[in-house]
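Quick illustration for those who missed Monday's session on complexes.
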Amino acid sequence: MGQAWVVGDVLKWGGASATIGEDDVDGEMDRLAHACDETLKELDRHAERIEVEFDSALAGIFRAHGQMLRGLFASGEFERELRGSLLTAEAAVRRVLLRWHQKFEALENQTFRQRADDVLDLGRNMIRRLRGEPDTGLKAIPDHSILVVERLLPSDVVTLPKSNVAAVVVETLGQGSHAALLSREKGIPTITEIPGVLSLIDSGTELLVDGFRGTLVIAPKNKTRIDFQERLEKWRATLVHCKAACREPARTLDGQVINVEANIGIHDDVELALDNGADGVGLLRVEQLYFARPIPPTEDELFLELEGLIAPLGDRPVTIRLLDIGGDKPLPYLRLPPTSNPVLGRRGVRLLLDYSQLVRTQIGAILKLSQQHSLRVLIPMVTLEDDIRRMREAFDAMSTERKITNPPEFGAMVETPAAALAIPALLQHVDFFCVGTNDLTQYTLAAGRDDPSVNDYYLDNHESVMRLLNIVVNDAADRPVTLCGELAGREAFLPRLLNMGFRALSVAPSLIPTTKAFIRKLTISAATG
Ligand code: PEP
Ligand code: MG
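Prediction with magnesium ion bound:
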């Protein structure tokens, strides 16, 4: 329950623009020149770091943005717009860049058309700077508000201050998308598929959001509000009941202990995981640390961030997954070359294998941290045996180079049908497996996890996925297998999963108490799907 905080795209939802007088033009030009300088400095800093971690081709995209901005400024177009329209600097930037966006979009040439998005990015960047809000504006959300947005990126969720956000309402969002599952991890109720929602709601309107039913009430009547409040309190009472025993192991009625770990990425998740009795961390998505920064970290920076993140977990084991970007997880500061089908393109380990410094930075930080914390390393999006063999070689070579005698255990994500069906080949290179049903579902059912139009096909409990899971557990032999996709947190399917042989689950921290309570009521030997 809360008041709406509507955040539109600054380029589209600029609101009515204030007019200025002739005398104000010079002042607005100064503001514009300052914002331009600051943006150029930032683009240079990004380019330098990207060049070190990735390569000069990717860094070149930032340099091209810089050239574009210098060119626009030098051409006098901003000044002409200001003098002609007598609107503020923000409005002038919006008009000029939207004009250029249209020009680029109209071009036949593919490469130039791709520049159209860069123009929008530049425009957003400049407008935020002029408004004095260097980030997306989401951080400024007032306490206990409900965020209302058109789209939600994983990087947006990472920077959302959890304590302030009562819920999120998104116009469109795929049910398996990373942004959706990251907000679930933070315990923020999130609903979607409400066409034109931004035009229906003004900031300040009272909203009721039901994350279980996927419903939204705008400006509720008194009776509706009271009913809602009653249901909310009932839910909170159930939670308090489950939480009482959440720190105890989850033991089935027939005595099997099931490890219930947490999927985490940022500090808020760690607090929640500890509070909810996580037995460890089954999946630390390192990309969240990358999302939360303006540029990629150095090894020392990553070490310090990871150390700060996992220190509160004490002696609980932590599985750190190397950067899994590409596909539906874009890094805002990394413009990878466009590809016709990103989810089937270079993502996860495929990208890691192309950028050796990126891998060295992460493995270096993890090896150092492994000397003070019990860690495991996990490789994302494995398809071929060669993927995991080459990563293992890089990992072993660095462990030897750094004279680490007790390196962390090394594992592979099983999230493509190819990996699930080739466990015997992958087995020899790993110490453990972690099954990611979110991607496994997308690739098995040929339904994009972030594409709302195929939500009906994105079924993580489909028989085809279940059969693959069965094969993985059977073929993994003595290698431990953790189930870390969203399916692991869906109670209705737990009896079948435990019956198959899964003994370790990793779920959103908010789901741990109820998952443990549910397991305690099961008898595995009698469990059926
Ligand atoms: C998965 O694919 O199930 C998984 C756990 O990884 P991610 O959701 O980060 O892609
Ligand atoms: Mg995945």
